[in-house]
Amino acid sequence: MKRIVVLGAGLVGKAIAVDLAKSFDVTTVDINHTSLEKLSSFTNIKTILTDLSEEGEIQKVVKEFDLVIGCLPGYMGHDTVEQTILAGKDIVDISFFREDPFELDELAKKHNVTAIIDAGVAPGMGNIILGYHNAQMEVSSYKCYGGGLPFKREWPFEYKAVFSPMDVLEEYIRPARYMLNGELVVREALSEAEIGHFEPIGSLEAWNTDGLRTLIKTMKIPNMIEKTLRYPGTVKYIKVLRETGFFSSDPILVNGEQIRPIDVTTKLLFPVWELKKDEEDYTVLRVIIKGKENGIEKKYTYNLFDRYDKETETTSMARTTGYTCTAIANLFLKGMVDHKGICPPEYVGVDKKNFEFISNYLIERGVEYNLTEE
């Protein structure tokens, strides 16, 4: 039986470990004893308590396994992938790291490693869908709208962090890149807000985020954009926090102490943003692809609405992100992904068999994308 190690036992990491343990020998690693304790009822999942940020620890941990799954926060993502490559191990990673993953492409090829990155929902499944259609048609436009939200709208934020809270903040401060008429455009995060209708929720606010990532390099498509979804009004209050300096990493002097504002902000916000026990969330994703197929103008629209699983107590974001990741992991271990080096999800989606495998895998777990054609 193949041995898999899951680095990170948060909401998504737990869902990934539980799903993979149905078919593989799974070990989960985390620094947080409480997170690992939540896996104690799954007797077929082994756990390791350690600090993966310590020098040499990642290489030490992963050396005995056939595949590594990276579920650590974005600020640890690049180093996790790099250290796993140096250990000569293949990895499927979901972290939202700032750095260009292709900087590690040569290193991965040198070590004969496949590193599948951004293997989540958005980025992730949107890339897979685009990769598939781009191989079938001449795509002129790609739009992706995605977000995870609580059903209960509580003042003042009407939001709960359904993945790494630090990565949530990245969406508010990292400059957004998109393609417009063949030109790369860079705008500040939270820019060009718009209101859209998303069944069965209703109106949601969308704004520019840096979710295209690898697509900017791998796809020669003139128009591509990705936007994050929240309840209406979010942009206004987040901009107030950002412009006041609450997200700044530059230290300021407070009572003789050098303090980074973002460290104070995280201490204040993260407890407020934490999902309460049994609090339900949902995920919305809309992918719109336009172009010519066999000389005919076509428009494909994929809509996903997924909700918290009461039976397994699994958040929707953990389901939609985690099961995309585990589908890709299964594909890889079946030998259906043979790309060496850095492998973004769009490379995986090019093959029709891969696309259908992932789609069916998600449907089996109740995550279903509804397609309309025009």
Characterization of this structure:
The chain is α/β, with parallel strands linked by helices. The protein folds into two domains: 3-121 and 317-368, 3-Layer(aba) Sandwich (Rossmann fold), CATH 3.40.50; 125-307, Dihydrodipicolinate Reductase, domain 2, CATH 3.30.360. Helices cover 33% and strands 29% of the residues. The chain has helices at residues 11-20, 33-37, 57-62, 74-86, 105-110, 125-136, 165-173, 215-218, 234-244, 261-273, 316-333, 345-349, 352-364; strands spanning 3-7, 25-30, 45-49, 67-70, 91-93, 114-116, 138-150, 176-180, 183-187, 194-198, 202-208, 223-230, 252-254, 257-259, 281-293, 296-307, 341-343, 369-373. The strands form four sheets. Strands 3-2-1-4-5-6-17 form a seven-stranded parallel sheet, sandwiched between helices. The protein has a seven-stranded mixed sheet with strand order 10-11-12-7-15-16-18, covered by helices on one side. Strands 8-9 form a two-stranded antiparallel sheet. It is globular and about 55 Å long. 46% of the residues are buried. The mean pLDDT is 95.
Quick summary:
By secondary structure, the protein is an alpha/beta fold. It has helices spanning 11-20, 33-37, 57-62, 74-86, 105-110, 125-136, 165-173, 215-218, 234-244, 261-273, 316-333, 345-349, 352-364, and strands spanning 3-7, 25-30, 45-49, 67-70, 91-93, 114-116, 138-150, 176-180, 183-187, 194-198, 202-208, 223-230, 252-254, 257-259, 281-293, 296-307, 341-343, 369-373. Helix 1 (11-20) packs across helix 11.
